[in-house]
Structures are given as C-alpha cells and as structure tokens.
Amino acid sequence: MKTIRTLAALASAAALLTACGGGGSDVAKELGLQNPEIHFVHALPGGPNVDFLVNGSVLQPNIPYKQVTNFANINTGNTNVSYASTGTTTALASGNFPDVAKGHEYTVLALPSLTGGDIGLIDDPFDKGVLSNSARVRAFNATVNAQNLDMYVVAPGTAIANISPTMAGVNYKNAVPASGQDSLYLSGGNYVVIATVAGSKTPIYQSPTISINNNADWLITTVPTAGTLSQLTPGQFHILVAQGGNTSQPSAEYINALTNQ
C-alpha cells in the first residue's frame, strides 16, 4: 500500500482529484485510491485470436495478434489470469498475481515459447509523483531462446557508443525495470528506440522517430517474426510499443509493429 507522505501532498492531490472529476487519474493511482487496473498484450506470432480471462471469466474477448486492450478495473487480492483461443475455455497459458493492490497497473502478455504459448506478467506499482507529468517507460523481451538485449530510448541522432542503455540486460519473459518495480521516467518528446545484444554497441534494431507524450505509459516489447522463434537478429524481430495514458478518459490504446531499419 502506498504511503501518503505529507498533509500538503494530500491536500494538493485532493484538489487535483476534484479538478479531474475523480477516479481513474494518475493522482488516484499514486495515492493508492484507484482500483487496480489490468490490460492484455497479444504478442504471440501466428497465434489465434484469444480471450483474456481473469479468475476464470472472460474480461476481454477476441484479441488479435499485435493488439493491446484498454485498461480495465479488477478486484484486489489473489488473481489468476490466462488466455484461451476465442470462444474456448482451455487456457493456452496461465499465471497468477498473488496480491493485486489498489493503485497498481498490471500487464499480461501472450508470449511465444518453443512448444506453444507462454505468459508474461508485470506488476507496476505506479509510484509516480502526484504532480509529475513525465512519461513512463518499461521494456519486455518476448523473443524466446534469444540473447539478452539492451534498449536505448534516446533523442534522434544520438550516438550510443559512449552512453549507458536506458534499460539493460532485458532477458526473455522479463521486464526492465522488473515486475514489482516502478517504470522509468522520461520527459515527453521525440525519441528513437535502439536495441543491441546486451553489452554490444551494434544496433540490431532502430526505430523511426517516435513521439512520447507527457503522462504516457510505454511498454516496449521485442517479439520474433513468425517462424524465427529462436533468433534475435536484424530483420527477424519486431518492436511492439504499447502506449497508454490517463484511462479516466481513454483514447484507444494501440500497439505498433515497427520494422527493422
């Protein structure tokens, strides 16, 4: 549970909540007042459309590959998640969040494995300052049996030879920052995403210029192209960028497949 650090912060937050019209705001999440929220990313190349299930019931149906759902409210406490081919009840993969908490955002990903489907889970405690408008960024590696990678989110034209990765050593089925830790924070602006094998400065992926809005939530995920499940090489994987913002007034969340340069 998040701590309200000072009475002044609480008073400021109350004023902002009134101005925003109540629940669903970043302020409510930061103070641990917002109901937990969850969304689903279909990152399983060649997989069927799927239904996303929470505690055995369909929460969001008929999700195609390379799509991300809007955030939806869920209850607190022990929570089972899974996905199944649309219209069926047999889970292709399942997982568990043992202690879903207010103010947190949760992400579930359908992932490739060497023998079928797998699942990725991210618990984001959303520890953003109540007055911050920074964008939030996290990386996830959905490329099975591949090398770890370093991810750079930098201004266009930046040479990465002498700078540290924005998110380093992202290994399969894991996020950086890790699940349970807060996202990284960046100012809104124009960026490029560059991926290298961990420890290397040779890009194996570079995106076109992408605009990150203030208050955006970004999940940058690598996925293999169909038929190349064990490779992380130029031309053999995509970057999926799931971008979300203030879900009290949601625009459609979207996921982009950016081709290798």
Automatic annotation (TrEMBL):
KW Oxidoreductase (keyword) present: no
One Pfam family, short name: DUF4397
Cleavable signal peptide: 1-21
Alphabetically ordered keywords of this record: Signal
InterPro entries (alphabetical): DUF4397 (IPR025510)
Keyword Signal in record: yes
Domain DUF4397: 37-152
The protein, known as: DUF4397 domain-containing protein
Species for this entry: Paraburkholderia acidisoli
